[in-house]
What we know:
The protein has helices at residues 29-55, 73-86, 111-119, 130-137, 145-163, 174-188, 216-226, 243-257, 261-268; strands at residues 64-68, 94-101, 123-127, 167-169, 197-199, 206-208. By secondary structure, the protein is of the alpha/beta class.
Amino acid sequence: MVNPMNAVTDNPWLAEEAAADAPADTAGGNRIKIEREQIKLEKRLCREVGRAITDFNMIEEGDKIMVCMSGGKDSYTMLDVLRKLQKRAPVKFELVAVNLDQKQPGFPDHVLPEYFKSIGVDYHIETQDTYSVVKRVVPEGKTTCGLCSRLRRAILYKVADELGCTKVALGHHRDDIVQTLMLNMFYGGRMKGMPPKLVSDDGKHVVIRPLCYVPEKDTVRWAQYQNFPIIPCNLCGSQDGLQRVAVGELLREWDKKFPGRVESMFRAMGHIVTTHMMDPELHDFKNAKATGIADPNGDMAFDHEEMPVSASLPGLQVVQLSS
């Protein structure tokens, strides 16, 4: 199978917008290098978001996309890339940026409206005091994310209805998705991540994650290049003891020591062999019987599966067993 990233395609979602080459490196070498890196990163972001939109049919003709804006690096990047793709997309669609002002103390409520006006995007600010609710209900020292996200989700779905939006776009990136998988494995005893596209529980809303192929380091770098007016989250981001924070740090450490490991984990989420897991809902193990008919997938139970040679995990010792 041809990797869509490397395939030659006429798909407008994946076509690279013509960009002026950086000037020859004659003077100001460092500045020229940064400009070239910025151009390459912009092309990569547009390509990966376009690939996700194509692979999962995220955006269709006539869609009105509600782009959920928290004021963080990821939502800024998502809005920026979607606006770039909107200019050359094979379908016509609208974008409306939506921020939920949760009345956190010290929240700079002027920042996002000023930014939206400066770039000329349609926007809506929804003001709901969920901060007081969360602080009143959740005991001091306990994680606020669960209740906060449920309240936020319900409000945003209501706003999507009021604005006539057909899709709700969230800014979760590749690393968020892998983190969620690991959190569910470590603490929930289940293999569950974040889907790139889903229908809400009430069946009324379609949620998309256009950044699902984008690594976090790319949104960090793009936010720095674009100098987005970042707003920190005082309700969730300040809780340093969160399990998600710890798992995120683990993944970043792995990515430094073992480049490609996080990407490999992400790819595995799209290549699940249900017959080699243990979920009876996905495969009928009880009634598995010998039929005498060869299975094209074969029985690999006794096969030695070749793995790339790499350093062992921290704290683990690799022992070679003789057969």
